[in-house]
Each structure stands twice: as structure tokens, then as C-alpha cells.
Amino acid sequence: MNKNDPYAALRIKEFNIFLLLRLVLVFGWSMQFIVIEWQVYSLTKDPLSLGLIGLMEIVPAFTMALFAGHIVDQREKRNLLATIIAAFSLISLGLFLLTWPVVVSSWSTHTILYCIYALVFFGGFLRSFFGPTIFSLIALIVPKKLYANAATWSSSTWQMASVLGPAFAGFSIGWIGVHWSLCIIFGLIILSLFIVFRIKKKPILNPKIGEPVIKSLKEGVQFVFKTKAILGAITLDMVAVLFGGAVALLPIFAQDILKVGSEGFGVLRAAPAVGAFLTMLITAYLPISKNAGLKLLGAIFGFGVCIIVFGLSSIFWVSVLALFFSGVTDGVSMVIRQTILQIKTPDHMRGRVASVNSMFVGSSNELGAFESGLTAKLMGTVTAVVFGGTMTLITVVTTGIVSPSFRKLDLRKDIEDHEKD
Fold it and tell me: What is the residue-wise DSSP string for 333-361?
């Protein structure tokens, strides 16, 4: 096999099943988040209510993350993922029932909102398991020499679903309404439950089954903090996502600033993912392991600039382009970060390392949504977005100055070592 083959991981049948599973699941998950954002803001017209969606998800996701990583490292991954998907289907069913016309007409707005927030909270709990399980499963499907290639295709699939899900959600809200859009989402989650059983059960590689929880968690956290490449990558990305979370305010831009309706909302929401997806396809052919540290810093700096441009724009297509290029830069960041994590994490610690990553990066999406909603309430929507982009730029410059070792990070030798295994 040609070591430069951009399709190397795709030649493994089970990895293709995994990608299909991830596409369907993330499509439904991202579509659901968009529909709920739209419904909540339509009910309240309060930017803080959008921030509360993020807060309701981050609290369980953050507090459970380390324990979830420990459990993932101790359990068989295929069946664990099936359990997570089955539980997630209950959330989708609940949201579908909450938007039933009979329920909407007989329940108060506050009751419906509280129920939505409760289901989002349960979803945050599940998400703390989802990321580490997916991350660990990839490493059990493909050989080590293909980790970097598999990480690129897996991230690309995630972005493809993030493109299609929000775009379809925006149009489906306009075509068939919130209620039936949620019915489609429920169907997608059930489909993913069937797909997951096409993947074979995997061996548990952790040699310390039954290890005390506290000792296991301590080992995972210490590994991340000792591995400077991992710590630097996820910390930098966390701050960028935290302060650059403009996407949480897109319902406000679509409805009140740009006035483009649900279809325009779908386009805005999909634009970053389109940019990221195209970037990831390119990186499958043109690896970016050389000077990875500098490229990561440059990508996140560019992301901050795009967020500022988006915040200041009052023209729809300028806003779309700004979000598109924010996705381009985010795509570079994601590929580099995922490659670092896959290459530098030992098999028996993947669940715990992925959990720490989700605490830093994954949870910062929801915390960023809360930060954006809160600052929009206090400063105004446009000012809040510009403030977030500015903080991202300051963080990148500061990291570049205080961490010369991160600037010099190069992944080529690590990848070559894996190819020899």
C-alpha cells in the first residue's frame, strides 16, 4: 500500500461503516440542535435563552467527562456506543412530542421550555460518553500507520454532517415546521442504531480493568498535562471556541439583523462547516503535519479575524463568506488537533484523554454559547461577537509568545514512527 495514499483508511470496509454511522448520527444531532435553537428563540425572543441551551448541555458534559473517560476505557466500545445512541433516541422522541400541536396548545411556554432544557441536559450527559467512545473506536478499526489518514476522513465526515444537518434543518423548518423536522431527526437516530451493529465488537485494550476510579482519572489528567503538544492544542482551541462562539447567536442575526428567515439561518449555520469540510478534503491530499504548531496558531488567528468580520457585517453574503472562511481556518485546526491526539495517545488511555479533550474543547462550545448569549444580553449582539473575536486574537498572540516549543511543533517524525509500526 502506498504510504501517501489519501484513501488508505477508506479501503477498510469497517471504517466505511463507521463513517456512515458518524455521518447519520452527527447529521441528526446537529440538525436537532438547530431546530431547538430556532424553536427556543421563537418562543422567547431572548438571546439569553439561547445561552441557556448551551449551559444546560455543558453542566453534565463537563462534570461527567472524566468519569465517562474512565468508563469508556473499561468497557467494550461497540456496545457502549449502541447504548448511547439508544438513549439519545429517547431525547429525540421527547423533543418531537414536546412540539406536538396538542402539547403546544395545552402547555404553557415556560413548561415546554423547562422540558426542552431538561432533555438538553440529559443530552449533555450522553455527550460526555459519545466523544471518548468514538475516538477510542477509530483506533480499534484502523491500524496505527493509518491514524493520521483516518483522523482526517473522520473529521471530514463530521464536518460533512455539520454542513448538511444545519442546512437541511433551516429548510425543513420552513417546509414542514419544527415538529416534523424533529420526527425526521428521530428516524435518523434509529437508523444509526441499526448501523452501529454492523461494526464488530472490539477487544478491551486497557490492562488495568477494575482500577480504582480516582487513580484512573488522575493518570489520564497527568498524561495530558505532561504532553505539551496535546495540552497546547486543546487549550488554544478551547479559548478560540469559547470566545468565538458566534454561531450560538445566529438565530438573532437571521431573524433580527440580517432578516433572512429560516432558510437564511440554515445557510449561515452551514457556511462554517462547508469551509471546514472542503479544507479537510484538501488536507487528505496535502498533509499539514510540517510546522503544525505554527499552522495551528495561524489558523486560529484567522478564525478570530473572520468572527470579527461576521459581527460587523450587515450584508448577508458578506456574513456567509466570513463564516465560510471561519470554517476553513477551523478545519485546519481540527485536523491538526485530531492528528496530535491520535498519534500521541496510547491505546489504553484513549477514553480518558478524549474526555479531557471534551472538557477543554467540546464543552467550550456550549460554554461559548452561554458566554455569547450572556454578553449579547449585556453588550448587544454585534458587540458581543466582535469582543469574542478580539479575545481569540489576543489568546493566539499570547500563546505564540509564551510557548516557543509549541510554535516549533512538527508532527512528521511521529507520523513516520507510526508508519514503521
Answer: HHHHHHHHHHHHS-GGGHHHHHHHHIIII
To which H or E segment does residue 204 belong? none
Phi-psi region of 380 (alpha: psi -120 to 50; beta: other; left: phi over 0): left
Give the burial string for 59-72 (b: 16+ CB within 10 Å, else e). bbbbebbbbbbbbb
Contact (Cβ atoms closer than 8 angstroms) between residue 362 and residue 69: no
Cβ 391 vs Cβ 272: under 8 Å: no
pLDDT at 236: 78
The span from the CA of 395 to the CA of 401, in Å, is: 10
Residue with cell 433580527: 256
Note whether 170 and 30 are within 8 A (CB).
no
> In this predicted structure, what is the pLDDT of residue 364?
62
Nearest alpha carbon to residue 406 among 234, 162, 245: 234
Q: Provide mean pLDDT across the span 299-309.
A: 91
Integer-rounded Cα Rg, in Å, for the chain is 20
CA separation for the pair 149, 165 (Å, rounded): 24
Spatial separation of the C-alpha atoms in residues 351 and 83, rounded to whole Å: 16
pLDDT, average across residues 149-172: 81
- Beta carbons of 53 and 36 less than 8 angstroms apart: yes
Alpha carbon distance 264, 320 (integer Å): 9
Query: What sign has the CA pseudo-torsion 204, 206, 211, 214?
Result: negative
For residue 119, pLDDT beyond 90: yes
- Burial (CB count within 10 angstroms: exposed 0-12, middle 13-18, buried 19+), residue 286: exposed
The residues, any chain, with a CB within 8 Å of residue 63's CB and separated by 6 or more, are none
Q: Which three cell numbers stand for residue 196?
A: 452501529
pLDDT tens-digit profile of 168-221? Answer: 888 898 889 999 999 999 999 999 999 999 999 987 766 666 567 677 778 878
Give the separation between CA 57 and CA 121, rounded to whole angstroms.
Answer: 5
